[in-house]
Amino acid sequence: MADPFSPFKVDLPLESQRGFNTRQIHSGAVPDPATKARAVPIYSTAPTVEVLEKRVAALEGGTAAVACASGQSGVFQTVLCLAHAGDNIISSINLYGGTYSLFKCILPRLGISVKWVQDSDPESYRKQIDDHTKLVFVETVGNPRISIPDLRAIADIAHDNKLPFAVDNTFGAGGFWCPAIEHGADIVIHSATKWLGGHGTTVGGIIVDSGRFDWSESDKFPHLTKTSEGPMAFSYASAFGNVAFALALRIEVVMEVGAVMNPFAAHQILVGIETLSLRCERIASNSMRIAEFLSDHPLTGWISYPDCKTMATHPWGSTHSIMTEEDRLSAGVTEDLIRLSVGTEDVEDIIADLSRAFDAIVLIHENVQTSVDRITPQTCNIKSDVGVNEVESSVVEML
Ligand SMILES: *Cc1c(COP(=O)(O)O)cnc(C)c1O
Fold first, then answer.
1. What's the DSSP call for residue 173?
2. CATH of the domain at 139
3. Domain range for residue 249?
4. Measuring from each residue's beta carbon to the nearest atom of ligand 1, which residues come in under 6 Å?
5. What pTM value is reported for the model?
6. Is 239 exposed, middle or buried (0-12, 13-18, 19+ CB in 10 A)?
7. Which terminus, N or C, of the chain has the lesser number of Cβ atoms within 10 Å?
8. How does pLDDT run across 69-116, given as a tens digit for each residue?
9. Residue among 96, 261, 307, 311 whose CB has most ligand 1 atoms within 8 A, to mutate
10. C-alpha 282 – ligand 1 centre gap (Å)
11. Alpha-carbon distance 55 to 43, whole Å?
12. For the modification N6-(pyridoxal phosphate)lysine, which residues carry it (predicted)?
């Protein structure tokens, strides 16, 4: 019998025969029947968003995906779909600043508590699980300390307890760097604002259902497994099989909460995704060169090396500044941490820019002896004349 839900699903047997580079250009779309055009058109209704959903699901190896307004709304709506007042979720403390605030401040107001894991031992997740736990959550590459959790070990612990494992795989670049589902993730969340869109022009989020979690095996999610009362009497788990989570998320949360993606954002992200693997290759080789340059530089205190435009941030004073000093330190956000997000520019230009920043630091320290007030990047008279001067000026401003 034909699968009635095939319109909502990715054709996994077909997609698994295609490479990542082919999927990032073709998955989820067919040529326009009227014009034969290959490029995905913008329909100001749902079809453009649907192509994006299928394309990202295909890249990650999931059965279906739900696009939403931003990465933050993706994280929030995933939690809302699974945890209610009185429940808790287990999360690594190594998080993007916005997600940390959401978990620390907003979820508790809704009666959902967050139990934090501070260290990298997967067994620490097991210790936190109790009867009210509904979800285990990590980021593939924990922001900003660049911590890398053992996804498979944490997934196994979640699954031993019949709990779904959600991974914010934003830093896994749509599965190009880290196919999180292969490592045990049941739900994969992306801020499409970052690598997927790739050009800093659009905000978006997307949530992928791996289709692998057996909801009916767990008695923790009655709203997904029990038949609801009323005219729409059905159980998501038995009615929708391996797209149950995606459909529950879409119908019960995203449509009701309203943080949906608009078709114009979906179109921009689709265009961005076509070059995802190419950008990632350049970003990886640029990052390696810069890590080598920095590790050889006498002014570098320490370096940790495991985004599209190069950018330097100071998490202590910006993205993570709402955390208390103690929380920042326990999350590895020290005052001397400068986070470099390396882009696709010519690596020589980025290194030249960093060199100017180091020169400026030396100059500032010399000036400090004479007049503290007069020290600004301008008084140092080091304005870069090539393209990527944001790095130099932002590093200098941080100091
Ligand atoms: C940026 C980011 C988010 C939030 O995404 P927005 O699209 O900006 O809302 C969530 N998680 C990670 C890891 C991020 O880097």
1. G
2. 3.40.640.10
3. 8-270
4. 70-72, 96, 98-99, 139, 143, 168, 170-171, 191, 193-194, 203, 205
5. 0.84
6. middle
7. N
8. 999 999 999 999 999 999 999 999 999 989 999 999 999 999 999 999
9. 96
10. 22
11. 16
12. 194
